[in-house]
Write a structure and sequence with these properties.
Layout (H helix, E strand, L loop, with lengths): L6 H13 L2 H8 L3 H15 L4 E3 L4 E3 L1 H28 L3 E4 L6 H12 L5 E4 L4 H10 L4 E4 L6 H4 L2 E16 L10 E2 L7 E2 L9 H11 L5 E2 L9 H11 L3 E4 L8 E7 L2 E11 L5 H17 L8 E2 L2 H7 L4
Parallel strand pairs: 3-4, 7-11, 8-9, 12-13
Antiparallel strand pairs: 1-2, 5-12, 6-10, 6-11, 6-12
Helix pairs in contact: 1-2, 1-3, 1-4, 2-3, 5-10
Length: 322
């Protein structure tokens, strides 16, 4: 047996042991299935034992795999702790994705900068928690905001979150739209409309899923995919060309030629959480968590208004405070 087994091989082994499915394990690690299979076979050669019994129907740990799994987990936990300690010791800049300018998460970042002026908290505006969560797990991003319940369970297992706000939802309408004159738009008035909610954008799957849940049974259609627009200017340009109503939140930045109208009857809520990698220790993360707690209390962001709507799954997850 080799004396210097690579942690990557142990991580592949642990992921397959958790999922008992190579395709799901590969998706969890953001690697190709063929690469994952090669890593597992290589580990089996290095330890001199078969770790899984593979058939066309199932994957099962062998007795030797069962014996080695707790040792592998301890090695991976120690590696994660070492990386976290090194990151905290260097106090490197923290990369925080805010999705779009002007939203509540920007206020959280501002407060965190006040709480930890010695930390460099760098804002990014990439859009979409689905994309950001993968970057966080891969270590290319440190924190983001969005609908945590909309992520795949295997991804949530590697992340932590703190609820920030139940953000009231709204619709962006062309200024000459039949509903533009309303101060608030009842959801029933959108029946027969087609509304853009990021369909086709792989970065915002959690938002499109929320739209489908909201529109289901109300006669509202989700618009077909539009060209992927990264950045506020490109998004505004595409929406101006399509003239499609856009599902948004009440703090959504203004777009020329449009009006923003809150949705009511019921008031749909977008559940927003601060999300970071599980086990990540950094003074900037601590400042973001404290800023989230303070602002949520001061602004009553986590008090759902009477007559509001939120998916039951989201409600349960948002109630799980730290």
């Amino acid at each position: 047996m080799r004396q210097d087994i690579e942690p990557r091989l142990l991580r592949a082994f642990a992921a397959v042991a958790d999922e008992l499915h190579f395709t799901r394990a590969a998706a969890r690690l953001y690697v190709a299935q063929q690469a994952l299979s090669r890593d597992v076979r290589r580990l089996e050669r290095e330890v001199g034992a078969e770790l899984f019994v593979r058939t066309t129907r199932q994957v099962v740990l062998t007795a030797e795999g069962e014996r080695l799994l707790p040792y592998a987990r301890r090695v991976l936990e120690a590696q994660d702790e070492l990386l976290a300690a090194a990151a905290a010791g260097h106090a490197r800049p923290l990369l925080v994705d805010l999705n779009s300018p002007g939203l509540a998460c920007g206020r959280v970042l501002d407060r965190a900068r006040e709480l930890a002026p010695e930390c460099e908290l760098m804002a990014r505006y990439e859009s979409g928690l689905t994309w950001a969560a993968g970057e966080i797990v891969a270590g290319r991003l440190d924190a983001s905001f969005g609908r945590y319940a909309g992520l795949e369970p295997s991804l949530r297992d590697r992340l932590d979150h703190r609820p920030v706000r139940y953000e009231p939802m709204a619709v962006v309408l062309p200024e000459d739209h039949r509903l533009a004159g309303h101060a608030r738009v009842p959801l029933a008035e959108l029946a027969g409309e087609t509304v853009y909610a990021g369909a086709g954008n792989p970065r915002t799957l959690e938002w499109t899923d929320l739209a489908h849940r909201l529109f289901d049974g109300r006669g509202i259609e989700v618009a077909e995919p539009a060209p992927l627009a990264v950045g506020a200017d490109e998004f505004r340009r595409i929406m101006a060309k399509t003239r499609t109503p856009v599902l948004a939140v009440v703090d959504f930045p203004a777009m020329p030629g449009t009006v923003l109208r809150p949705l009511v009857e019921p008031i749909p809520l977008s559940p927003v959480s601060l999300v970071w990698r599980r086990g990540h220790q950094h003074p900037g993360i601590d400042a973001l968590r404290l800023a989230t707690r303070q602002l949520a209390q001061e602004e009553r962001w986590l008090e759902a208004p009477v007559g509001s709507w939120i998916p039951a799954m989201d409600g349960r997850i948002m109630m799980c405070q730290e």
